[in-house]
Structures are given as C-alpha cells and as structure tokens.
Amino acid sequence: MAAIPDLPVTPKPAEAPLGHRLARRAEEYARLMRLDRPVGTWLLLWPALWALWIAGAGRPDPQVLGVFVLGVFVMRAAGCVINDYADRDVDPHIRRTRDRPLAARRVSPLEALVLFAVLGLIALLLVSRLNPLTIKLAFIGAALTTSYPFTKRFFALPQLYLGISFGGWSVLMGFAAQTGVLPRVAWVLYIAAVIWAVIYDTIYAMVDREDDLKIGVKSSAILFADMDRFLIGAMQLMMLGALWLAGRNMQFGEWYYAGVVGAGVLFLWHQWLIRKREPAGCLRAFLNNQYVGLVVFVGILLQYVYAP
Questions:
Q1: Which bin fits 75, alpha (ψ -120 to 50), beta or left (φ > 0)?
Q2: For the whole model, what pTM was predicted?
Q3: Looking at residue 165, what DSSP letter applies?
C-alpha cells in the first residue's frame, strides 16, 4: 500500500511584537477617550475658565487653574468612556459611531470599565487638593455625569441633563474653588453654560436624527422636530441674555460685551449652517461652538486686563 503523504501544515501567523500590540491598545484607549477629538474638551473647559477668571477677579489661583484644566481633560475622557460603554449596543447601528472601539468590539466592556475607574481615581486625586465645598460639588457632578448616558433611553431631553450635569457644573465648582461660596453671578453663568450645552448638543443630535429615530434613542433634535432651528435660536438668545445679566452683575464694560456680541455673531453663522438640516452643516455648526466659548472668555480676559 502506498504511503499517504503528510498534509501540508499551514503556519500560524506570526504574533505581533509586544511593543506593537501595546501601542495598538493605547491607540484604541485614546480613541475611546476621544483624545483625537479635542473639541469636546474645549466645550467643557471654556465655562470653567469663565468662572475661574471672574471668581478670581482676573487672577485665578495657579494651582486651582491647573487642577481645573487637568480635571476637565480627565472628566471629559471619563465621560466619553462611560457614554460609549452605555451605548455599546446602540453605536453599531449609527453611521457616525459604528467604528468606535467598543461598538466595533476592538475594546471589551471590562476594559472600558477599568479605564473609567482609573480616570475616576485620577479625577478624585486632583479634586482632593481643593476645598471641601468643591469636593462635595465634584462628587455630585460625577454622579450626574455617570448617569447621563443612560437617560437617552427614557428621557426625551437628554441634552438638558447633559447641560445640568456636565456642561455647566464646572462653573459652580470654579467659584467654589476660588471663593468658597456660590454667589448670584455663579448661578447666572451656570444657567448660561447649561443653555449653551443644550444648544450645541441639540445641533450635534441633528446629525444623527435619522439613525436615532430608527433605533429608538431619544434626543432634543427628535423632540423639537421641525421647530428645531426656532428653538435653538430662542435658546441662543436666552444664553446671550444670561451672559448680559452676568456682566451687569459684575459691572463689566465694553470689552466683556464685545465678547458677548461676538458670540451672537457666531450664533447667526450657526443658524446659517443648519438652515437645511444637513448632517455635514450641523456637524460644522457643532464644532464651531468651541469659538463661542473662546470669544466670551477673551471678552472676560480683556475686561480684567484693560478695565480692572
């Protein structure tokens, strides 16, 4: 009987070097934390800087400033991680989010939770350097921020919850860290920041409206329907009004109000961008909102430099 030849053995693919694999994991974690998309960090940082400069009368404490800049960066990253964890079974069905690390199953849910815990510990270490009132506010803010991603399942206006919990909370913490109290102007600025968060996140939600309708996710863009542009415009006026009240309370002058006027001009540009409700235009308007926060901050900065 003829001998049966041995079947060829297919060699296993060579395993990537350890350094390469670690670099790939680090890249996925960076994407999960949105380190490649810093606009969200700027949207959260500007209200904190408004508060720190006003509470510090133009001279915020350097240590407090450093803690807040790092803290905003860390908490924004943590918020993105827990948001993607909550949406890990929803994001694959949305064109804009289907390639996120958790949605694409390149990062496991356990890895995401561990990363979120590490970021939370870093934030806790940072805030522990501040006064007791700020620490209390930080714990409340962290609880609100962690619960935000889950509100999209049942709350028709999750963008409002985002503003209350994340968009403006740093304003209250900034005043608490600088002064140990929460004066009236802190609450007025907080309201302005909350409204602003609802504005830009509603515009952002307009990008995904069709996909959200299909899968049943709730958003202000869906709730507002064809009244979206009108209601966004009304909120833009409300935010500008709140900023005007804050300036009046502080007896600010032309430099500050020039910044508020600049924000108004940008809002007109955003209305033009979203006029057809096209996803690309809405995304541009969302990204451009970072400059609203910038011009308001520049107005505050110049007010203290030239009219102390």
A1: alpha
A2: 0.89
A3: I
